[in-house]
Amino acid sequence: MMRRTHWIIAAAILFGLLAGDVAYWRIAAERLRTGYQDWLAGRTTEGWEVHSGAMSIGGWPGAAQVSVQNLTLRHAGTAIPGDVQIAAAGVDLSVSLLDPATLKISLTGPAHVRAADFPDMIVTSQENAVSVPLLSGGRRRFELNARSLRIEPASGAWHTTLGLLNATADAAVPLASGQPGSAVTFSASAEAIALPALVKWPLGSNISSVTLGGSLNGPIPQTRDLTAWAEAWRDGGGSLAISRFTMGWGPLGLTSSATLALDDQLQPMGSGNGRVVGYAATLDKLAANGILTKSAVTAAKAVLSLMAGAGDPDQPSTVDVPLTLQYRTLSMRQVPLLRFPELDWPAH
Fold it and tell me: What is the reported pLDDT for 253?
């Protein structure tokens, strides 16, 4: 009799826990559904056009999830420069029952993204998630994680892939505050990058890894005109501080930091320092691909060899160099290395 009583008590406790979990899930799912509808209403107020298909609720027992089919967002207001349109086959919004303060957003199926006058781009991935904090505060941290990412224009003329992409951004709230001195800090890393094959890349079409970290400083202008946005950001003292940039591309290994801004022609300018591994083999490949002339390679090698000093002949050549970017020319100790094409901003 006692044993039977114990079993009844245990079953009652288990049933109570299960019922509590279901009730908690229902409350969380309803709040998520209501929050999504409120978010749609808020975007409409801000000038977004929103269209979506059927909505369903799931995710039990670990999470509350709202799935939306055929979501389309279009913006032509003043908060973002240029028109923006996003169309996704499906979107999953989920909140873990163990971490209800973080919203995860995942795209299901292909997504079409179009901004300003750029072509319609199709984005697909094997796995993707954006994490957004739900609690309000002075700053917010956003995270993006994607695996087997593929980006291509709707025309299918080319494509690029990334085996792995992780990115974070920490921004003031609201992001478009327009206050001088506001900043967005960011970091990103990518691996196994395959560049579009239709371009003859100077160091090959495969980049093994890239990492980037820094901050975007200055006011966030309130205009949808991309050129006017850049001018206002520049005139307000805007700058891009790159605290760390690393890249492995063919024979090149690069670690650098820099501070960049826009000049009076809205072209990038700035200065920084870099540690270059494998500079001799890199310069030879640039010359072989017609990026640099043989005389430029000879001059660069001579300067770099003097700066590097004696090294291990069995190891790749390594040197620490100061770099400047001015008038679209990247130079090292007064020696021009690369001349970039003009950044063509759209007319006002």
Answer: 92
